[in-house]
Amino acid sequence: MRFRSYASPDRGAVLAATAGGAWHDLGSADLVDIIADGRQADATLLDGAPELSTRGLSLLPPVQRPGKILCVGLNYVDHAAESPYENVPDYPTFFTRFASTLIADGDAIIRPRASAELDFEGEMAVIIGTGGRHIPADDALAHVAGYSVFNDASIRDYQFLTPQWTPGKNFDATGAFGPDFVSADEVPPGGAGLSLEVDLNGAPMQRANTSDMVFSTAQLIALASVWTTLEPGDVIVSGTPAGVGFARRPQVYMAAGDVVEVRIEGIGTLRNPVEDELEAL
Prior knowledge:
Layout: E1 2-8, E2 12-18, E3 24-25, H1 31-36, E4 58-60, E5 69-73, H2 77-82, E6 93-96, E7 102-103, E8 109-111, E9 118-119, E10 122-128, E11 144-152, E12 154-155, H3 156-159, E13 175-177, E14 181-183, E15 195-200, E16 203-209, H4 217-227, E17 235-237, E18 259-264, E19 268-276
Parallel strand pairs: 5-17, 7-13, 8-19
Antiparallel strand pairs: 1-2, 1-4, 1-14, 2-3, 5-6, 9-12, 10-11, 10-17, 11-13, 11-14, 15-16, 15-18, 18-19
Pfam families: FAA_hydrolase
InterPro entries: FAH, Fumarylacetoacetase-like_C, Fumarylacetoacetase_C_sf
Keywords: Metal-binding
């Protein structure tokens, strides 16, 4: 099944779902509660639910306030080679992103006043269903509720100010996420074997396959759960392939008026315009 979250001016957050036909209005149901109950592939959720009218609604990220967003750097061999680090890591380069940075499909990615080095990073997002600690890799995919599309837009000069990437990965309105949450049963195990493409203003920038990840979805879950308790609704953003703007010569950064698209086969297309941060009043 697929789920989308919307904002309504008079109803607040609205959840919608489809099993392949029309989208149905699930009202104020919480996707994380559905995930925690293991019902993300349960088509009976649609029984009696009216068809959705999107009039007056605006998209939200599939999970608006994840308890944790764990991102992974250098998780494609070709991207590691084009980065300042060159070598493929022996252990995943985990870093965190804050929920306050998230935006939905169609929302503007904001280029901040502080920098002109706004870069794109198309990635597959993994949403945790069953939580836990010390999850064996052999069992890890049973802990996945579903998948989505992510653009880990990065402010490169701030990212490389220190060995810790936190500032450059957490400017407001840079974590584009969505539009759909797709239950794991509709995707190959671990989200492997899917084409991942990024276009900027229609020009191809990134072309890869999720099977090229250095650490698979199962390995990422197993290794992360050694040091943190994973919970329903947590998001693992699994890394980006080669082709990012800072590694190009000349470099290609996003600017106001641009449109960036991230497409992952079988999961969806995430499309966002780019705008400049407004001057303070």
